[in-house]
Amino acid sequence: MNKLLFKQVDNIGLVLFRVVFGLLIAVEAIGGIFTGWVSRTLVDTPFTFNFIGFGFLQYLRGDLLYYYFLIMGIFGIFVMLGYKYRFSMIVYAIMWTCVYLMQKSSYNNHYYLMMLLCWIMAFLPANGWFSLDAKINPKIKSPYMPRWVILVLILQVWIVYTFASLAKFYPDWLNGSMPALLMEGKSDYWLVGGLLQKSWVHWTIAYTGIFFDLLIVPLMLWRRTRLLGFIISIFFHLFNSFIFHIGIFPYMSIAFALFFFSAETLQKRFLPKKKLYTGNEVFIPKYKKLFISVFGIYFMFQLGLPLRHWFFKDDVLWTEEGHRLSWRMMLRSKSGSLVVWVKDKNTGKKEHYNYGKLLGYKQKAAVATKPDLMWQLAQKIKAIEAKKGNDVAVYLESKVSVNDGPYHLFIDPNIDIASEEWHPFKHSEWILSSPEDYSAKPTEK
Q1: Most exposed among 309, 323, 368, 422, judged by the fewest C-beta atoms under 10 Å?
Q2: Does residue 30 sit within a domain?
Q3: 364 part of a folded domain
Q4: Is 440 part of a structural domain of the chain?
Q5: Bridge partners of 350?
């Protein structure tokens, strides 16, 4: 175990990844301003659907968020340059974590992965070479690092890909209908729009997605298949970038290859002046027990969170309970309708509530299909009415369609959602049971 974890190895892969990662997180932050993501998601909406329990982050709202993201971008550049690396990475990690927890209507798995990597990178010796820190203070300059650094990063990548693959083993993905739905909105794409509507393309996407996610890490680990895996990875992620427009995630995923190629290969291609470390020392640090405890607990959570939906009642595709933090990427398409009623508890008067005035465009679409957002909306409405001196019950009439199937009643319309408590690890009984074959397509007449 000591040799596996604490043998010293060349650090060129980590150093190069720091440069790429720093550039990408800087682009993510600054790009969020110029693409309008910050304004649409965080500034122009009256409130955001923060992760439950993090409502205090609403105080970060407003035009100051533009400066907030700009500052994040600057710290991302500092990470890339290796300047005040540890401080810069920790600050970015804190700031991005706040952004991530502040809103759920634009939930994306790469935002979650970015948060995890920021915190992991904050504790890695990624500025030991090819950094301003090492140039300013030669005492920290080092050509090596403990092997556990690479093992931790590879294990994190393996968890992401493996659970993404396993989640695709359900009927609508295996029969190609879900990839077909994903491609429907791409028919106007230049050159490839028509091609993407072909049945054989949908089947190819379905099974390429499964086997790529399942096998890419083993392919990259084995020297004989590493180059093949890398070529496949480039094509796969560039395809995703072009078709799905998912930000920095494809390029960050390509950069993961730096953890797998040999130090000799990376030196030859990128840092020919770096002297390779060839020692075989094993340095057992004083923090050994702490290290094993911290990362042991961390990876227990990483393995447990994607499995938690099996302990909830009903299907995660229907209830959404256990969906987030589980690497369930582009697995289903959901649409819904939502009508909100409020009933004055004193007078008994029940009337329709125009909740649309509280939400932005994307929030309206998200709240119609996700029960935790519905619960938060009900709490928001109750609080707004309480300020007016009204004690109200909030009832929801919601219908949901999964994977272009028929619409079914989703929420019990007779339960006052505003009076219900939220239990993150317990099924909410006001979510109606999934109908049989709820994602089946309506029979054409």
Answers
A1: 422
A2: yes
A3: yes
A4: no
A5: 343
Reading the chain (445 residues) residue by residue, the pLDDT tens digits are 788 898 999 999 999 999 999 999 999 999 999 999 999 999 988 889 999 999 999 888 889 999 999 999 999 999 999 999 999 999 999 999 999 999 998 888 999 999 999 999 999 999 999 999 999 999 999 999 999 999 999 999 999 999 999 999 999 999 999 999 999 989 999 889 999 999 999 999 999 999 999 999 999 999 999 999 999 999 999 999 999 988 999 999 999 999 999 999 999 999 998 989 988 898 888 888 888 999 999 999 999 999 999 999 999 999 999 999 999 988 889 999 999 999 999 999 999 999 998 998 889 989 999 999 999 999 999 999 999 999 999 999 999 999 999 999 999 999 999 999 999 889 999 999 999 888 777 654 3
Both 7 and 149 in one domain: the answer is yes
In sequence order, the β-bridge partners of residue 126 are none
Q: Are residues 287 and 359 in the same domain?
A: no
- Give the domain extent around 356: 333-419
The answer on 261 and 398 residing in a single domain is no
Using only C-alpha atoms, the chain has a radius of gyration, in whole angstroms, of 24
Co-location of 86 and 132 in the same domain: yes
Residue 292 and residue 372 in one domain: no
**Structure tokens of 200?**
């054989």
Give the integer Cα–Cα distance in Å for 378 and 411. Answer: 13
Does residue 424 lie within any of the structural domains? no
Which of 73, 120, 124 shows the shortest CA–CA distance to 95?
A: 73
Number of domains within the chain: 2
Would the pTM of this model clear 0.90, i.e. be above it?
A: yes
Q: Are residues 306 and 337 in the same domain?
A: no
Query: Do 39 and 175 belong together in one domain?
Result: yes
d(C-alpha 294, C-alpha 90), whole Å: 17
